[in-house]
User: Fold this.
Amino acid sequence: MKIATWNVNSLKVRLPHVLDWLAANQPDALCLQETKTEDKGFPFDELAAAGYRALHNGQKTYNGVALLTRSEAVDVHVDIPAFDDPQKRVIAATVDGVRIVCGYMPNGSEVGSDKYAYKLKWFAALTDWLKGELTRHPKLALLGDYNIAPDDRDVHDPVAWKDKILCSEPERAAFRALLDLGLADAFRLFEQPEKIYSWWDYRQMGFRLNRGLRIDHILLSKPLAESCRACIIDKAPRKLERPSDHAPVMAELA
DNA sequence: ATGGCTTGAGTGTCAAGA
Assistant:
């Protein structure tokens, strides 16, 4: 089983890239973030023609998450229960016996800002919720744009980014709190080359200079981590015309 | 350099992203 995540930064603009990537990689589940549309603008028909069912938790202009699957997804949930949030950032469902949670975690804007406080509260609510979800669904994967670079290895210039948004210690502690639930960072289950990232700034030739961060992740519960055979970040779509600023991340489960 | 791109909103330019 192949599961993947990709922040597409507008599904309307990126649909051709998504369709090409699905055809080339044939994942069983693909989590999308930043669809930036309501259901009425969502390309259900084009995805169905490509062999994918779609679940969508969208809104106008900002945020929006979707779960694309080849087989039927059941027990669908949107948003974090008991966390009052108008922003559409979570969709979850069970696919082929695996609980897939797709998240678009808040960016946080700037350390110390209101959005930063919201980000930390959001992660605390997510962690609280997942604690219970893991008892109900031992085979659980949390995929998405975490907006956190967990370690200095995940940052092209750790000195410049030290204590900055995406890299601050409270954000990294929030990431570790998820690991403490018994989840494993699929990418780090394997030997990886150095300087592998999942996001590059559009400006200042960020991609060409490989000035990136690894902020898109797949976390796996213990049974899934034990069955994980590979985890890769696919830079190919970032090289296309009008790319998303994020690359897809994919894990292969036995 | 609170700059530098990109998107969606919606027509002039701004919020938001990371």
Q: What stands out?
A: The first helix of chain A runs from residue 11 to 25. Residues 9-10, 12-13, 34, 36-37, 60-62, 107-109, 115, 145, 147, 164-166, 199, 201-204, 206, 213, 215, 242, 245 of chain A lie near DNA strand B (CB under 10 Å from a C1').
